[in-house]
């Protein structure tokens, strides 16, 4: 039976550490728990909020909702021709999974080390870092389809992954509750060292294995991203904006140090951190909320503040960037 609470404090369930409450919250440790919670008469008619690690949400106030705290465990390895299939429960810690696979001799997730949050949340924004996106290691996932109340398996194509995007942020928003994810890790593992900073971190190691790459990623992330256990944050707060080659070239002419990355379709991704940094926001504090001093893309909460204050700061940043560069930057986390 799902373990149900009324007026449940969510401060420890969102990495910004905003102090809000849920009208009801249920710990979901199995698919049976999930069905039981959804059928519980106490929460009938209330909106539903699904929380994994709470590392990609901004909670702006108490939630008059049923909050599902996804804690389904599980780890299973199967083999197929040329690859291992690793299935993990939605509630498993993502970084824990990365480390466990590497320790068990199943490389492939090392570039995605230390990303906060759970396995079940990883496909929602198609987590990506240091040259690898989840979709490149994704096989399928299992989810409850709330329209039919049946469990379904969704494959790579059905999940509609894009940069920090998927079916679950678009047409499938509020429709699916992910309970397990299966990753495909090819046996002929190849290191991905395309990201300049990662390659530099590994200089001197001619043939780094997965554990060495994981450790390098951990070192880089620890240097520039705040640990949510110490400073409230949700990683990158803005997505890197995509612009046309024309717009990028015009900006480059007036800002020769502009940081941009060519995309396969000819467009360019701009480093939002660079844009925000150039507007002078890096390290700025506005009472309890602010911009991290080592990476302008990360907004922080020092305690005692609200999601609303954080969003006001984010709006000011986006407006300033737009006025100065003519580019609109969009928030990454889900606002509730
Ligand atoms: N930059 C600045 N000032 C800053 C921050 C960045 O000038 O304050 C410049 C840097 O000099 C660098 C460039 O911007 O040349 C890119 O910075 P970085 O390598 O830190 O990567 P990012 O584009 O800011 C993205 C992801 C991160 C991911 C890293 C590494 C997004 C929104 N963010 O950040 O993801 O870890 O690349 O792959 O795509 C996250 O999503 O929460 C996240 C941390």
From TrEMBL:
One Pfam family it belongs to: FAD_binding_4
Reactions accelerated catalytically: UDP-N-acetyl-alpha-D-muramate + NADP(+) = UDP-N-acetyl-3-O-(1-carboxyvinyl)-alpha-D-glucosamine + NADPH + H(+)
Top EC category: oxidoreductase
Enzyme active site: 164, 236 (proton donor), 332
Pathway membership, UniProt: Cell wall biogenesis; peptidoglycan biosynthesis
UniProt main location, coarse: cytoplasm
Gene3D superfamilies linked to this entry: 3.30.465.10, UDP-N-acetylenolpyruvoylglucosamine reductase, C-terminal domain, Uridine Diphospho-n-acetylenolpyruvylglucosamine Reductase, domain 2
PROSITE patterns, sorted: FAD_PCMH
EC number: 1.3.1.98
Keywords assigned by UniProt, alphabetized: Cell cycle, Cell division, Cell shape, Cell wall biogenesis/degradation, Cytoplasm, FAD, Flavoprotein, NADP, Oxidoreductase, Peptidoglycan synthesis
Family: Belongs to the MurB family.
Record-linked PANTHER family: UDP-N-ACETYLENOLPYRUVOYLGLUCOSAMINE REDUCTASE (PTHR21071:SF4)
Name the UniProt record assigns to this protein: UDP-N-acetylenolpyruvoylglucosamine reductase
Organism: Cupriavidus numazuensis
